[in-house]
C-alpha cells in the first residue's frame, strides 16, 4: 500500500494511478495484484484527500467511477440500471452513523427503520435479464455502466433458472447476483487440476471470475459455479415492489437461490447484532464472504433517499477484517517435524490478517514453492481464515525486486546435521537421522517402544516426554541405561512401576530381526516390509550393506522404499546408535536365507513406451530383483529393450544396433520364466 505524502496533490495522483492499475488487474485480467483490504484503504484515503481539497478532484478519479473497461472477446452490454458499488463501514460506529444518516433524511425515528441484511459473497457480480419468463441475457458488472455479454456461460449454471418457475411470470425481470464457488467445490476443482497437470487456482474468487469469463461455455460448464441472487434491478410486476425482503421472497418463488442467512432487522443495534452473529459463523460457511450488506428494506424509502455519484444512500457494506493481506518474504527457514519431514516456513514482514499479527506462513514443500515461483524478497498475498495456519496464496510477480534470492532445500538437516533425502517422485524431503535427530526424538522413541516394535511394557507416551525433556534419554539405546533408583525420582513413578519398566526393558533386549527393523522407524517401512527384509537378507549386516538395486530385489519393495532404506543406513548417526543398541544387549536370532539366483546380473535393460500391465517402477523393480541394471538410454552395451506402445527414438536406436527387443507380452513371459528359476535362453523378438 502507498505511503502518505506531505504533498496532497502528489499523493492523490499516485493513489489514482495505483487504484486504476488495481482496477485493471481485478476487473479486466481477473488476476488481482492487491487484496481487497488494501484497495479499500487506498480508496478511502483518496476520498479523504478530495474531501479536504475539492480542487484536486478530477473527472476520471476512481471516486467518481465504479470499475474498469470490459475485456476484449465478449460483446458489450449497456446496463439499463447502473450496477453501482456500495460505501463501506469498518466498525460499529460507522454502522451507527449510516443508520443515523438514513433516519435524518427520512425524518424518522432511527430505531424504527427496518433493514434487510445478508452476507456479502466474494465472487463475481452478474446481471440476468428475463423476458416473458425466459432467460435472454447474462452480463458481467464491468465498469458498472457497461459489462460483457456472458449469456452462453451463465446458461450452464444449474442454480440459474432458464425459465422462471410459477405462473404469470413478469414480462420483464432483471436480477442481480453473485457467481461464486464454494469451498468444497474449489477443493474438488483444484484436485482435478493437480491430477491432470492443469492450472491450480489461488482462491475461489479468482476461480469463479476466470470461469465465467471464458469464451468457451464448455469450460464454465465444467466448473462448480453457483449463483445467489441479491437484488431485483427491474420488474414490471407490482406484486413484488413493496420491500426488498418481499422481492427476495419473489425471487425464491421464481426459482432463484437467495441467501439463507438473510434477515430483516430494526435500527442500528439490529444491524450491529446481525454483523456480529454473521462474523461468528463466517468460518463455518462453505463459501467466502467478506462482510454483510445492509439495505433499507422499504422501497419507497429507498427512492426518497436516492443515490450519490457512485453508491446508493440506502445501502452500505460492513467489511470484516481482511483474510488476505500483502507483505514480503524476509527469509525462509526449514522446520523438521516429528517424522523427519522438512517444511519450508516463510518469515514475513509482520502484517495484520483477520485481526491477528502474522509473521510466519508455511510454504508446505518445494513443489509448492515452485508452483508459486516464490523467492526471498518477493511481495506476496498471505491468507488466514479462522484458526487455519496462514498460507501464501500468490506471489505478486509485478512487484518483484531486482534482487531476490532463490529458496533452496538444505543438504543437511538444520537440527542434527544429517543428510536430507528426497526420493525420486516424492514431494517431501526427509531428514535421514531418524534415531539421532532431536526434532524426531520423542516420536522415534514412542515408535521404538510400541507393541509391534520392541513392545516395552510400561513405557508410555507421557513418560517418554518426561525422559526426553529431562535429557535422560536421547537415543533408543539410552532406554537400556535407565535404572530403578533414578526412575523412582520422577513424579508419579513409584519404585514398583520403575522396577516393572526396567524388567520390561530387560525382556525387550531379546527380539526378532523383523521387529528390530520395524522399530527403527525408517520411512515407509511397516511390519510387512520389515518382515520381508528380514526374510530376504537374514542378517542386519547384509541389509545395511545393500544398495538400492539389491533392496528393490525384495518382493513388494519399490524405488521409493529402497531410497529411504539406503539413506537411513548410509547415515553414520543411525549406524552408531544401532551399534550402541547392540552393545546394550539388544539381540535376535539370525534368519537363514538360501542364496537366490539373479540370472540377469551384469545385464543392462532399457524400458521405453507405455506398459499396460504394470507401472514403469514395477518393471524396474522386477528387473533389479533379477540382477539387471535399468538404464534410460540405448547403447551398444544394452542387452535388451522393452518397447511398449508409443515407443520412439529408443526403439529406432535399438533396431539400428540389432539389439534384443521385447514387446510387453514377451517381456512378461520372460520375467515369469526367470522368476520361477529359469535361465536366459532364446529371446522373443518383436
Automatic annotation (TrEMBL):
Entry binding sites for Zn(2+): 413, 416, 437
PROSITE patterns: BRCT, DNA_LIGASE_N2
Domain BRCT intervals: 595-673
Organism domain of life: Bacteria
Enzyme class: ligase
One function term, GO molecular function aspect: metal ion binding
Binding site for NAD(+): 36-40, 85-86, 118, 141, 178, 295, 319
Reaction(s) catalysed (UniProt annotation): NAD(+) + (deoxyribonucleotide)n-3'-hydroxyl + 5'-phospho-(deoxyribonucleotide)m = (deoxyribonucleotide)n+m + AMP + beta-nicotinamide D-nucleotide
Keyword Magnesium: yes
EC number of this enzyme: 6.5.1.2
Keyword Transmembrane helix: no
Family of the protein in this entry: Belongs to the NAD-dependent DNA ligase family. LigA subfamily.
Protein function: DNA ligase that catalyzes the formation of phosphodiester linkages between 5'-phosphoryl and 3'-hydroxyl groups in double-stranded DNA using NAD as a coenzyme and as the energy source for the reaction. It is essential for DNA replication and repair of damaged DNA.
Protein's UniProt name: DNA ligase
Organism: Kushneria sinocarnis
Amino acid at each position: 500500500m502507498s505511503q502518505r505524502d506531505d504533498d496532497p496533490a502528489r499523493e492523490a495522483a499516485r493513489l489514482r494511478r495505483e487504484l486504476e492499475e488495481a482496477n485493471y488487474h481485478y476487473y479486466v485480467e481477473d488476476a488481482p495484484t492487491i487484496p481487497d483490504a488494501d484497495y479499500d484503504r487506498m480508496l478511502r484515503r483518496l476520498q479523504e484527500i478530495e474531501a479536504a481539497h475539492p480542487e484536486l478532484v478530477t473527472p476520471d478519479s476512481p471516486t467518481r467511477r465504479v470499475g474498469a473497461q470490459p475485456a476484449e472477446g465478449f460483446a458489450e452490454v449497456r446496463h439499463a440500471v447502473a450496477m453501482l458499488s456500495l460505501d463501506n463501514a469498518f466498525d460499529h460506529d460507522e454502522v451507527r452513523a449510516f443508520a443515523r444518516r438514513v433516519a435524518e433524511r427520512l425524518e424518522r425515528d432511527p430505531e424504527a427503520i427496518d433493514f434487510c441484511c445478508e452476507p456479502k459473497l466474494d465472487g463475481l457480480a452478474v446481471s440476468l435479464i428475463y423476458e416473458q419468463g425466459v432467460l435472454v441475457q447474462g452480463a458481467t458488472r464491468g465498469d458498472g455502466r457497461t459489462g460483457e455479454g456472458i449469456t452462453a456461460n451463465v446458461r450452464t449454471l444449474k442454480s440459474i433458472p432458464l425459465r422462471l418457475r410459477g405462473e404469470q411470470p413478469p414480462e420483464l425481470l432483471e436480477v442481480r447476483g453473485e457467481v461464486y464457488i464454494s469451498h468444497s467445490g474449489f477443493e474438488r476443482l483444484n484436485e482435478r487440476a493437480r491430477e491432470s497437470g492443469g492450472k491450480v487456482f489461488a482462491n475461489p474468487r479468482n476461480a469463479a471470475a476466470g470461469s465465467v469469463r471464458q469464451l468457451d461455455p464448455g469450460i464454465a460448464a465444467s466448473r462448480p459455479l453457483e449463483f445467489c441472487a441479491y437484488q431485483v434491478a427491474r420488474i414490471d410486476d407490482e406484486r413484488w415492489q413493496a420491500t426488498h425482503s418481499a422481492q427476495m421472497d419473489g425471487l425464491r418463488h421464481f426459482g432463484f437461490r437467495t441467501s439463507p442467512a438473510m434477515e430483516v432487522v430494526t435500527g442500528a443495534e439490529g444491524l450491529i447484532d446481525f454483523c456480529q452473529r454473521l462474523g461468528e459463523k463466517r468460518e463455518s460457511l462453505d463459501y467466502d464472504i467478506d462482510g454483510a450488506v445492509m439495505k433499507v428494506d422499504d422501497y419507497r424509502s429507498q427512492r426518497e433517499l436516492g443515490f450519490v455519484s457512485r453508491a446508493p444512500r440506502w445501502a452500505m457494506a460492513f467489511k470484516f477484517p481482511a483474510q488476505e493481506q500483502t507483505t514480503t518474504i524476509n527469509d525462509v527457514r526449514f522446520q523438521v517435524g516429528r517424522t523427519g519431514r522438512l517444511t519450508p516456513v516463510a518469515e514475513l514482514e509482520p502484517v495484520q490478517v483477520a485481526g491477528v499479527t502474522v509473521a510466519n506462513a508455511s510454504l508446505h514443500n518445494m513443489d509448492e514453492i515452485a508452483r508459486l515461483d516464490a523467492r526471498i524478497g518477493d511481495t506476496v498475498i498471505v491468507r488466514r481464515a479462522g484458526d487455519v495456519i496462514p498460507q501464501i496464496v500468490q506471489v505478486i510477480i509485478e512487484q518483484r525486486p531486482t534482487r531476490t534470492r532463490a529458496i533452496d532445500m538444505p543438504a543437511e538437516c538444520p537440527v542434527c546435521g544429517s543428510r536430507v533425502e528426497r526420493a525420486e517422485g516424492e514431494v517431501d524431503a526427509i531428514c535421514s537421522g531418524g534415531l539421532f535427530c532431536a526434532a524426531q526424538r520423542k516420536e522415534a522413541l514412542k515408535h521404538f517402544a510400541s507393541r509391534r516394535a520392541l513392545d516395552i511394557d510400561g513405557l508410555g507416551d507421557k513418560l517418554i516426554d518426561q525422559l526426553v525433556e529431562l535429557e535422560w534419554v536421547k537415543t533408543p539405546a539410552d532406554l537400556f541405561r535407565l535404572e530403578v533408583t533414578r526412575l523412582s525420582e520422577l513424579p508419579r513413578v513409584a519404585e514398583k512401576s520403575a522396577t516393572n519398566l526396567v524388567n520390561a526393558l530387560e525382556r525387550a533386549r531379546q527380539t526378532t530381526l523383523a521387529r528390530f527393523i520395524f522399530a527403527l522407524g525408517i520411512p515407509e517401512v511397516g511390519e510387512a516390509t520389515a518382515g520381508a527384509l528380514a526374510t530376504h537378507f537374514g542378517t542386519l549386516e547384509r541389509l545395511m550393506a545393500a544398495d538400492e538395486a539389491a533392496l528393490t530385489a525384495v518382493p513388494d519393495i519399490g524405488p521409493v522404499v529402497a531410497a529411504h532404506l539406503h539413506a537411513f543406513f548410509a547415515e553414520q548417526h543411525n549406524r552408531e546408535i544401532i551399534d550402541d543398541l547392540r552393545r546394550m544387549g539388544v539381540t535376535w536370532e539370525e534368519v537363514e536365507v538360501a542364496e537366490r539366483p539373479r540370472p540377469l546380473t551384469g545385464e543392462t535393460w532399457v524400458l521405453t513406451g507405455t506398459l499396460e500391465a504394470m507401472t514403469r517402477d514395477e518393471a524396474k523393480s522386477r528387473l533389479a530383483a533379477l540382477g539387471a541394471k535399468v538404464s534410460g538410454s540405448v547403447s551398444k552395451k544394452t542387452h535388451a529393450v522393452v518397447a511398449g506402445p508409443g515407443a520412439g527414438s529408443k526403439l529406432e536406436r535399438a533396431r539400428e544396433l540389432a539389439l534384443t527387443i521385447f514387446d510387453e507380452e514377451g517381456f512378461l513371459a520372460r520375467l515369469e520364466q526367470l522368476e520361477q528359476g529359469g535361465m536366459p535362453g532364446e529371446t522373443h523378438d518383436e
